Amino acid sequence: MADKAQLQEAIKTQGEVVRKLKSEKASKEQIDEEVAKLLQLKAQLGGDEGKHVFVLKTAKGTRDYNPKQMAIREKVFSIIISCFKRHGAETIDTPVFELKETLTGKYGEDSKLIYDLKDQGGELLSLRYDLTVPFARYLALNKITNIKRYHIAKVYRRDNPAMTRGRYREFYQCDFDIAGQYDAMIPDAECLKIVYEILNELDLGDFRIKVNDRRILDGMFAVCGVPDEKFRTICSTVDKLDKMAWEDVKKEMVNEKGLSEDVADRIGEYVSMQGGQDLAERLLQDPKLSQNKQAFAGLTDMKLLFSYLELFQVTDKTSSEKVRTTETQVLVASAQKNLLEERLKLTSELWNAGIKAEVLYKKNPKLLSQLQHCEETGIPLVAILGEQELKDGVVKLRNVASREEVDVPRADLVDEIKKRTL
Amino acid sequence: MADKAQLQEAIKTQGEVVRKLKSEKASKEQIDEEVAKLLQLKAQLGGDEGKHVFVLKTAKGTRDYNPKQMAIREKVFSIIISCFKRHGAETIDTPVFELKETLTGKYGEDSKLIYDLKDQGGELLSLRYDLTVPFARYLALNKITNIKRYHIAKVYRRDNPAMTRGRYREFYQCDFDIAGQYDAMIPDAECLKIVYEILNELDLGDFRIKVNDRRILDGMFAVCGVPDEKFRTICSTVDKLDKMAWEDVKKEMVNEKGLSEDVADRIGEYVSMQGGQDLAERLLQDPKLSQNKQAFAGLTDMKLLFSYLELFQVTDKVVFDLSLARGLDYYTGVIYEAILSQTIPASVSTPAEQNGADEAGVSVGSVAGGGRYDGLVGMFDPKGRKVPCVGVSIGIERIFSIMEQKAETSSEKVRTTETQVLVASAQKNLLEERLKLTSELWNAGIKAEVLYKKNPKLLSQLQHCEETGIPLVAILGEQELKDGVVKLRNVASREEVDVPRADLVDEIKKRTL
Questions:
Q1: In degrees, to the nearest 5, what angle opens at C-alpha A325 toward C-alphas A169 and A330?
Q2: Of A408, A193, A97, the residue nearest B63 (C-alpha)
Q3: Cα–Cα dist B390/A193, whole Å
Q4: Are B334 and B390 in contact (CB under 8 A)?
Q5: Residues 6+ apart with CB under 8 A from A229
Q6: Can you give the C-alpha Rg of chain B in angstroms?
Q7: How many angstroms separate the CA atoms of B178 and B180, rounded?
Q8: A-contacting residues of B 13-42, CB under 8 Å?
Q9: Mean pLDDT across the stretch A195-207?
Q10: Would the CB atoms of B183 and A93 count as touching at under 8 Å?
Q11: Which of B288, B290, B317 is CA-nearest to residue B198?
Q12: Are residues A120 and B95, on separate chains, in Cβ contact within 8 Å?
């Protein structure tokens, strides 16, 4: 018991240390250190008091989705999935963790970012890092040679927050893949059509889809004089052109990657080119590039791809709506007292008819609070019961926004609500 | 290089050892041991060969969902979510792992089933074990006092497969909870109405929802003479009445839990009682029970609950059953469990025991369970602020099993896509026209497919429709293109009609409502 009293005294003192540091705006590390000591002391108390020690936070790099965020998320998924389905895709799901060996050796340097599960005496497991390796495992396991599938699920990466501020460690990936042997470029074109449709429907403003081909890049590097063993590393330097100016990219190629200035300049001429099908045709006329087997194959396919993209056209669509977190159509309310039974009866009738309805969990709520609930959550209609209305066999149906009211015969209420909340 | 050749030789030999064991049907442990040696040898090869070593299995206790299973899953979720939304519920999502300390001390003995993440230098983490503790954490973290929320997500438990055959370690839970201080029993009644609606719409046959109340149980034990400290343990014995006969339950109470036969018999009289509002009224007349404060409060609320259930028109399937005891410690008031009436064949009931609602002792056929738990959120709040909660967990894995079984035995095909029409051609060199028409259909919101082949045979196009259940095929041909029409064929009946290009979208919509 004395130990307990001592502990409680120590906890009190340590609590003051923490409070003082916080008010002095000490560094986060210092505060965290003292808080950790405090929690340790509290944990030592054990028993019931131990249970009340609660760290109220989500794990680093993860977050909850509140109802508003879920409503937005549902809308985005709905648009995307509807597009995938329109193109005849199926969906699969895989477990959140795989055998560690399944993920080993697939991600190169990024492997250090994989979350492992503790060895608790069974198989060694890791959380999935992406959806592509599980997809490959699924195809091989089930001996599948042809499938058009989408998969929307969370993946896990132990990103270092100091390096990549704001990056989550648990985040959604939304993959669409076509597996199988087919005539060239048709499935490739459909993938681009799908991206185009999705970005249009999401109404995010103007966008561009850049296309290129690994074979064209490799061929281009070859004709410019890049040594074979430097292909991959020069590739990642060229990739930085979306973030850095050509001068800096050239500097990196010459100073860090050891290319001669001539070679870098030749690369520079090619990578500044943009266009459509015409560019592919022009490059097929380029004597050096067209002689390179890889580049030739890539450019021929690029021409073919653009011809299919021309056949696939899309139109813009726009929409905008208030973000609600529920889909309730009507609140069943009463202005007078002692009408709970009647409210519950009517609400049940509406539910049975498939109407999305709510009723306040109060025997005698004020009309004002019932209307406020509608305004706060965006419920468009309120069905108000009263003694007189019950005698007359009607329900007062009010439009929350306009405040217009009309008496609706009870038997017509369901249809009236459906009409007004299409 | 010599090393490599030696390794490859060793791999070849070890491969033969494994093959031999498998054909001799040796024990799994032996085979696994030799396979592991083989994989180790292969891994030593390193480089490219190392990469081709690919273990083709999912982790123990987990499974992929193939497209057919996903189609069933989507249908079930759609019915359930539609019901939740009809009742004005919002939804939230939480991370798959929590800080280890968040989950510590909340699950009693079951804590050993929690998956921990490896200590990789950061916070200690564990995979969520259910959706209720994350919910309580979410409420306390955001200082929320009132919410009606549903949450459908996977949870993780390291169940020992030898003990509980067929149980998955990763499985869905589907929770609906109403948190907040409200007038008594109205939200509790709405939870039951929701269970009723869902089970009806899922078309799983007849069902019953048993209700009881923790306070009535506790009061009943008190008046029967059960010592206070034995309440919880007698509770879990009574809970076994759905699986064991009364004689065996009584034996356990007397022989293992140390109750006197008299006390056991008194309990026996009560727990055999079932009824509706009438039973609650009768028990309120019971002199001993009505004197017990707990029991009196529970019975009064039970009466009130039934009066609301009558207004909600669900009393035909709800039974007040004094033997319902449910496993979890944190229930403080009404408890309930929904059970399907038809007997389920053994082949279906295996992963099925895995009802998201239960931790222990769920009867075969149980598909939902829940109750009121007023003290849980307070455990999470630093100031101990109480947020009363009532909720239900739908046993979604069990429902999946039943629906999958139904799909297998029914003649109706489960489609994995929703494609309305395949754009096809019987002649060659019409790829351009096919792609153009397909694009027009997509732009009009029609779900359409086209084969990735320049010159496919009509037969393979029709076969694709039959295999995947596409109901219509739009056939292009030179003559049709000149005439500005498209041949629209019903795949099942083979009836064909020429449709003007401009009317095609409407015609397809009409036929595939």
A1: 165
A2: A97
A3: 47
A4: yes
A5: none
A6: 30
A7: 7
A8: 39
A9: 91
A10: no
A11: B317
A12: no
Q: Provide the whole-model pTM.
A: 0.77
- The Cα of A262 is separated from the nearest Cα of chain B by a number of Å equal to 34
Picking from A91, A98, A123, the nearest residue to B70 by CB comes out as: A91
B102 to A54: CB separation less than 8 angstroms, yes or no: yes
Which are the contacts of B190, defined by CB distance < 8 A and separation ≥ 6?
Answer: B87, B178, B312
The helix/strand/coil state of B179 is: strand
Looking at residue A244, the DSSP 8-state letter turns out to be S
CA nearest to B103 within chain A:
A54
Eight-state DSSP code of residue B260: -
CA-closest candidate to residue A61, choices A200, A145, A154: A154
Residues 256-285 of B with CB under 8 A from A: none
Rounded Cα gap, residues B69 and A142, in angstroms: 14
Per DSSP, the three-state class of B92 is: coil
Tokens linked to B310: 């009558």
Q: Do B432 and A311 touch (CB under 8 A)?
A: yes
**Interface contact A345, partner B, CB < 8 A:** yes
- pLDDT tens column, B156-168: 999 876 545 557 8
Look at chain A and count its residues.
422
B4 touches B45 (CB < 8 A): yes
Q: Where are the alpha helices (DSSP H) in A64-106?
A: 67-86, 100-103
Q: Is-contact B128 B96, C-beta < 8 A?
A: yes
Query: From CA A320, how far away is CA A305, in angstroms rounded?
Result: 34
Q: Does B459 touch chain A (CB under 8 A)?
A: no
* Rg of chain A, C-alpha, whole Å: 32
- Give pLDDT tens digits for B271-300: 989 899 999 999 999 999 999 999 999 999
